[in-house]
Amino acid sequence: MQALAPTPQQVAPAGRTLDVDSLTVRYGAAVAVDGVSLGIEPGEVVALLGPSGCGKTTLLRVIAGFVRQAGGRVLVDGTAIDHLPANQRNVGIVFQNYALFPHMTVAENVAYGLRARGQRGASVEQRVERMLEMVQLGAFRARLPRQLSGGQQQRVALARALAVEPSILLLDEPFAALDRNLRLDMQIEVKRLQRQLGLTTILVTHDQDEAMSVADRIAVMNKGKVEQFDTPVAIYDQPQTLFVNGFIGTTNLLPGKVAGLEAGIAVVALGTGATLRLPAPRDIAAGAPVFLSVRPEQLVLEATPTAESWPVEVGLSLPLGSQLVHEVRTVDGTAMKIVEPRRRSPTEVPRRFCLLAPDARPSLFPRSTP
Question: Which of 3-7, 152-156, 203-207, 304-308 has the lowest mean pLDDT?
Fold first, then answer.
């Protein structure tokens, strides 16, 4: 009896596992990457996100084989590849500037990696045609890079990286040179292709919106270390450090003090005059100075006071598309931003009291000084 074809749910991801084990990179006395470990699943998209100089590009270049680490290992499917030169690691990479050969046509650029590996003949032509159709550039095969738009050049670079059937795809800020609308289109396109091929992919970016929209998980880096490695939703809703909290999204930091701890609940007295009861993190002690971090959309303005509200003075109220952004100041001088759906006119009489929204999930962080 003929075996049934596997269903899509039964097909294993085409991508490989990638493990970064205690990687350290030094440039003289400076430590660029400091003992970073990451475990990346087959077919997963992981974004390395952080400010300039945090070590994310250096980490990508170590994986690609362009930079030699001082310590640690890179493993693909459990096998170390550190001893292999860059051209033998079977990784595809798309650079920020695309790095296309200006004297070669689109088809020749896509074929370059295949020919460099010694492939010739009809198989190369077939592979090039398939890649160009995949990125929707079949009609542009005879053009030179200068005859293409930025988005089209990026697609050529992506097709060239995919043509060699890499085990890992590396994207080094590939959308940075594109305008906002085209950037979003290309993010969707890259995500579509990555899902279609099931490739394990690492994206380096300093754009948090890009990381949140494209990645399955995000490694937030700071000063050579990974501060949190988690899903986009978890990083936004449950930041583990004050750096991650401030780097991802917009937040308000309200100074306060832990007035008491009761069965895992912290009683927090804010400088605004309000007292709130919140889940207590493990590292919070009674009497400790803290920051309460609240996202602008987690705050509500009201006209009348309640037991859990605090007074504020509303400064500017600005319409921003479908939202209304309020700039307010508390009685202790703390500036805050509050975002709500634009159902009211900015010229209405400002409301004078603020409180947490019913579904708000604020975060508590210790302060180093009172």
Answer: 3-7
